[in-house]
Each structure stands twice: as structure tokens, then as C-alpha cells.
Design goal:
Layout lengths: L5 H12 L3 E2 H10 L10 H16 L5 E5 L2 E4 L25 H4 L5 E7 L12 E3 L7 E2 L5 E6 L4 E7 L4 H7 L11 E6 L20 H16 L17 E2 L3 H18 L1
Antiparallel strand pairs: 1-3, 2-3, 4-9, 5-6, 5-10, 7-8, 7-9
Helix pairs in contact: 1-2, 2-3
Length: 266
């Protein structure tokens, strides 16, 4: 099967499922079913942008319809037109016809409980993550923002990676007084990621209100601490979480170790 264009792949998923889907689920199904081989670094953003562009451009003639925040359906499968959502909420971060700098707010990427042992702690360590399985890898070593260090029981430290980028700040904590006390870390980054996997460091944080700050602080705390009594999730972060990838140097070392052990047994 030839690789489909993004719009074709999205329509194919809707044709398969015949129901409303969140754009994150659509992106995952496109990857699982090999409708596209090349997903880029931000497939979730791409899916959302393709759908909302079509809706904003074609209005009621669009083949897509929006039924809830981030949830869409093929218009021909829509049973009740009263289900339609016609206005975007401010909390939704993907709006078409805007530049990447305008689309995103304060937190533009994050990782939760990344494993310290999956990072190769060289002088400038790489912090590798993907938006979903099959997406291109992104290196967050130059990200700036807020980070948390965790041990097996709790969060032991919260810091800022501003004057120094995230990779350098975390590297410092492998050798300072906290060096032996943490095994996982979480981070919340200010720089957005473009579809090629590049961090965009020329963003402007203008028009930020007190409500924005409150929403972001609440979402960070919910996502990182996961309080048991909070039913609300940090829904400002849809599509912004990145899954950690093991450093290639560690994979190489493990492979070499296995080869040595097998050789010794011969």
C-alpha cells in the first residue's frame, strides 16, 4: 500500500472507525496501520492542523466536523448536527492559519518520570523523546523550563533550567549533593517543537494573563504529582507529552556487554 497523504490517512482512519475520535488517537492509528511511514516529529500537531485547517477553510462544507474539544468526525457520520462545536476554546493550542509561535502558550513540551538510567551522562547529555511510536526523535538537551527530580517515593527537588538548558542542569545534578538521591526526572519546557524536530527558541510569551498562569501551574502540579483526589487532568497539555527514548550509547554498551559475556562462555 502506497503511503497516503496526511488528509487521506486521516479520512481512512475515520472510514475504518466510523465514529468520533480525538486527534491524538487518529495519529496513533495512522502509525499503527502504516497509512504513513514518515510521521515527522509532531504527528499529533499535524493531524490537528490538517483537520482544523479544512474546517476553518471550508466551514460547513468541510468533510470534517468538530464534536468536542480535540474530537472530530467525518461529517457524513454525524447523526445530530446539534453535536457540532463551532467555536475554538482559548485552551486549545492548535489553531490553523497561525504561526507556530502564535499557536503555543507557556508549556509547549513535557516529559513525566523519565528514567535517569536511560540517559548517557556525557558532558552535554542528550535528552531524547518521541511524541508517539513511529514519530521522529527530538533532542531536548537545549530545552528551557521547569524540572523535578524524583526518588522512588517522592519529588525531592524542583528547579529552573533558564540560565542553563535542561541537559546541563540535569548533568550538574549527577555530581552535586543530589547526585545519589534521584533516579527519575520530569520536565516542562517553554520551547515548541516543529515537525522536523527542531526546538524553536524565538517564541514570545506575550498576552499571558493571570488565568493562563493559574491554569499552567495547576496543570503542571497535576501532571507531575498526580494527586489521588484530582479527577481533572492537565488538559492544556494534550499532544505535548514526549516519551523518553534510551540513549544509543547505552544500547551500544549493553550489546557489547552481552557479546563479551557470550564470548567468555565459549
Amino acid at each position: 500500500m502506497a503511503e497516503l497523504k496526511w488528509k487521506e490517512a486521516i479520512v481512512k482512519v475515520f472510514e475504518d472507525e466510523k465514529k468520533a475520535l480525538h486527534y491524538t488517537d487518529i495519529a496513533e492509528l495512522i502509525a499503527e496501520r502504516d497509512y504513513r511511514k514518515s510521521l515527522g516529529a509532531t504527528p499529533l500537531d499535524t493531524v490537528s492542523a490538517v483537520i482544523t485547517t479544512d474546517i476553518n477553510t471550508n466551514k460547513e462544507k468541510s468533510i470534517f466536523a468538530k464534536v468536542d474539544k480535540g474530537i472530530y468526525i467525518l461529517r457524513k457520520f454525524l447523526d445530530d448536527r446539534a453535536q457540532l462545536v463551532t467555536e475554538e476554546t482559548e485552551a486549545e493550542m492548535v489553531t490553523t492559519q497561525k504561526t507556530t509561535k502564535e499557536r503555543y502558550k507557556i508549556i509547549n513540551a513535557f516529559g513525566i518520570y523519565w528514567n535517569r538510567n536511560l540517559v548517557y551522562w556525557k558532558t552535554t547529555p542528550d535528552l531524547l523523546g518521541i511524541q508517539q511510536i513511529g514519530a521522529s526523535e527530538v533532542n531536548f538537551k537545549d530545552q528551557i523550563g521547569i524540572y523535578l527530580l524524583h526518588d522512588s517515593r517522592e519529588t525531592i527537588y524542583i528547579g529552573q533550567a533558564i540560565d542553563q538548558p535542561l541537559g546541563q542542569r540535569l548533568k550538574n545534578h549527577t555530581n552535586d549533593r543530589l547526585g545519589g538521591r534521584w533516579d527519575r526526572f520530569s520536565w516542562f519546557g517553554f520551547y515548541p517543537v516543529n515537525e522536523t524536530g527542531k526546538l524553536l527558541n524565538d517564541i514570545k510569551l506575550d498576552k499571558i494573563t493571570v488565568q493562563h498562569l493559574g491554569d499552567i501551574l495547576e496543570a503542571i502540579l497535576i501532571e507531575s504529582i498526580e494527586p489521588r483526589q484530582n479527577r481533572k487532568q492537565g488538559n492544556l497539555f494534550f499532544g505535548l507529552e514526549y516519551l523518553q527514548q534510551e540513549a544509543p550509547e547505552i544500547k551500544k554498551r549493553l550489546k557489547e556487554q552481552i557479546i563479551r559475556e557470550l564470548t567468555d562462555k565459549l
